[in-house]
Structures are given as C-alpha cells and as structure tokens.
Amino acid sequence: MFKGFELYYKIYGLTESPENDIGTFEELGTHSFRRINNYTTDQYLSYHRPLIDLSTLAVGDRSKTFVITIDFSADLRDAGASENYPRIYSEASAPISITINAIRRDVPYAYVGYTYEFKRFSADSRTVLVVYEQTDADLSNTAWTSISSTPNQARIALYVLSYGFDPLTSSVLYSLPVYLGYLDNVPLPYP
C-alpha cells in the first residue's frame, strides 16, 4: 500500500560530483545519503514515515499530477531569514496540502538536552548549538572544506523514493531511488 514519499540527501563540496547512479535503497546508506526529517514530527530514533504523507489522498485524486517543491531559497546562514527554511510544499491547486517548514538533517545535536533533536540545515539562533561539524555523517569528504571556508557554500544532492507498507507481512516497502539532481552553491551557516 503506497503511503507517500521519502527524501534522502547528501552534502558535497563545491568541486565534487554527486553520485547520480544509486540503484537501491540500501545503496543510499552505503553512499552516506541521509533521510530528510520533519522538525515537528521526527525526533532522534523516533521517525514519522513517510516524510511526505499522501495516505489521506482521496482515491479519486491518486492519479492526478501535482508539483511538490523542495525550497532551499533562503540564505541559510541568517537565522532570522531562514527560520522556516528549507521547506517542502505543494502547489495551491494540489489535491492535498503539503507544508513542511524547517526540514532537518539526519544528524542529532551532540549537546545535553538537545540529543533528541536533529540538526538544522539553516542557522540556529540558539548560539550554543553548532549546526555543522567536520564529523557529521551527512558530509562528504570535501564538504567540510566548502562549508568552513568563505563563501560557506556547498552542493546538496537529493533522491526521492516511494514509501509503502505491506499489511500482510507488516513490512516497509521502498521503490528504487530516483535522482532529483543537486542544488549548487547553497549558503550554509558556519560559526
């Protein structure tokens, strides 16, 4: 039974070419791609799946086409301007309304009291929290160099997968990953 979509990402340095030929869900993990998380429903070790939930879509609307946007357009270095970014949303004419503000990375904060919370893509006004660290699992080998040096930019590659559930076997089902491409020169915060 189809439920919706999951998005996976990886952050690359500006001179790197993202992997664009991943063929299975398992290969996403092998290549260090991580799940994009919803700030309001996902906590470390407690995920609401799928990220983009279409399970309430009316039967008559299941064959309709509509656009879902993954928006990284704000300057993610500015905590005020990027408070609700990046975000995912559907077009106004879509048969189901989708709005997910302030999507998060799949890397938990390492600070006491915040370990249940995923790190932001954008700047965090809570100055005690460091958003990007060299050891973060979602960074490629040269991503840290791009993030930590001026102009603090990187590439973010994205894959989408259909997500479903088999009620007979109680197992989760994923489609083959589809490469969406990469966003170039994304401004990322560095303390």
Unreliable segments of 5+ consecutive residues? none
- The end-to-end span amounts to 44 Å
Mean pLDDT across residues: 86
Query: Structural class of the helix and strand makeup?
Result: mainly beta
Q: Please report the number of helical segments.
A: 2
Share of helical residues: under 10%
Percentage of residues in DSSP E strands: 25-35%
Rounded radius of gyration (Å): 17 Å
- Large-scale geometry: globular
What is the helix/strand order? EHEEEEEEEHEEE
Q: Please provide the count of β strands.
A: 11
- Give the count of structural domains: 1
Sheet with the most strands, sense and barrel status: 6 strands, antiparallel
Description:
There is one protein chain. The protein has 191 residues and is mostly beta strands. The chain has one domain. It is 6% helix and 32% strand. The chain is built from 2 helices and 11 strands; from the N terminus they run βαβββββββαβββ. The radius of gyration is 17 Å and the shape is globular. The chain starts with a strand and ends with a strand.
Q: What are the key terms here?
A:
3-stranded antiparallel sheet, 11 strands, globular, mainly beta, 191 residues, 2 helices
